[in-house]
Amino acid sequence: MAFEPLKVACLGMGWWSDVLADAIVRSGKLKIAACYTRSETKRQAFAAKYGCRAAPSYEAILEDRGIEAIVNTTPNHVHLETTRAAATAGKHTFLDKPIATTIADARAITAACRKAGVVLALGYQRRKEAHFRWVRHQIDDGVFGKLVNAEANISRDRLGQFDAGSWRYTAAGMPGGVMLQIGIHYADVLEYLMGPVKAVSGAFVQLVLPGENPDVASLILEHANGALSTLNACYASASEYYLMNIYGKEASAYYDLHHGLRFLKRGGKSSSLVPCAANDTLVEELEEFAAAVRGEAQPEMGGEAATRSLAVLLAGVKSARDGRRVEVAEVLGSEI
Q1: Assigned domain for 1 exists
Q2: Is 258 within a domain?
Q3: Ordered per-residue pLDDT tens for the chain, 336 residues
Q4: 302 phi and psi angles, rounded to 5 deg
Q5: Is the pTM of this model over 0.85?
Q6: Residues 258 and 324 placed together within one structural domain of the fold
Q7: Looking at the structure, do residues 28 and 132 belong to the same domain, yes or no?
Q8: Residue 224 CB: number of other CB atoms within 10 A?
Q9: CATH code, 58
């Protein structure tokens, strides 16, 4: 059965709103019907760019029965307010990660959507990248054997792009700084590949960027299966770089941004290149959301999974602050 494109409204007109809007256009399975942000200049520009209606208020969007869902890229601290309002109005929500900055807010968001019977999906597109899907399939097929270790790095240069007025660079808006903003993606991929994290040890420093937030952070993750992994995130590097190496008793995989994915089995002399065609992960996660709204799928990252993902990062923040190893269950059981 063919469906009309899912009619969505975009809420929040920061740079990421355009990235998701471009993906919506590429997909064709969703349609931007309206947009809203407090800045009239920004919403009028967004409306002109994407051919949608610039709504006079968020309330006007919520009252519009023709709009089925909200694509929410607002600052983290208003995720609860905006998503709960959408749920109360019967609107489904695609929410950019992290789900919130506190476990209490994350749980309240999840509960509000569940009570209203609306779909809540979180934007964790990195786990959908073709190279990580390939590794996961090999793990599921037993090719890696027992997983023992992993290392990951996600680094970018933000010195020339720093905006002192942005909530993304404040302790309140982005606790943990670079680790919560971009490190969370690779923390998620590590859990996706290596299994759930039970405890975290972290260190955070501020070396290059101005402001109040860490721009370099490192975590040691203890997985429930006994494996260890390390994660480094940086906003103070000279260039952009991604690394993800997975080590099993029987095989290893090595991915980096510049050389792609390589694979080596036990006893092999050299690694071999694994051809992985680039996939449009943003389109995939938005189309998955649309399918979930139509009752044809479930979001890969819903409220519960996103809450646990947040807890891993907050455990790292608490560890760095307290100078001790912190179990994820401790964070899930009480606010930090």
Answers
A1: no
A2: yes
A3: 567 999 999 999 988 999 999 999 999 999 999 999 999 999 999 999 999 999 999 999 999 999 999 999 999 999 999 999 999 999 999 999 999 999 999 999 999 999 999 999 999 999 999 999 999 999 999 999 999 999 999 999 877 676 767 767 777 777 888 999 999 999 999 999 999 999 999 999 999 888 788 989 999 999 999 999 999 999 989 999 999 999 999 999 999 999 999 999 999 999 999 999 999 999 999 999 999 999 999 999 999 999 999 999 999 999 999 999 999 999 999 654
A4: -100, -165
A5: yes
A6: yes
A7: no
A8: 13
A9: 3.40.50.720
Domain interval for residue 153: 126-279+311-333
Show the beta-strand stretches assigned E in the chain: 6-11, 30-36, 53-54, 69-72, 92-96, 120-123, 147-157, 197-205, 216-223, 228-234, 236-248, 251-256, 260-265, 272-274, 326-327
Domain identity same for 44 and 180:
no
Is 45 within a domain? yes
For the chain, what is the total number of helices (H) and then of strands (E)?
Answer: 11, 15
Element at 139 (helix H, strand E) = helix 130-140
DSSP 307: H
DSSP 48-86: HHHT-EE-S-HHHHHH-TT--EEEE---GGGHHHHHHHH
Contact 69, 61 (CB under 8 A): no
* 90 and 230 assigned to the same domain: no
Q: First vs last Cα of the chain: how many Å apart?
A: 48
If one counts the domains in the chain, the total is 2
Contact (CB, 8 A) for 125 and 282: yes
- The tally of CA atoms less than 13 A away on the side-chain side of residue 97 is 29
Instruction: Indicate if 40 and 78 belong to the same structural domain.
Output: yes
Q: How far apart are CA 205 and CA 320, in angstroms?
A: 9
Q: What are phi and psi of 64, to 5 degrees?
A: -80, 110
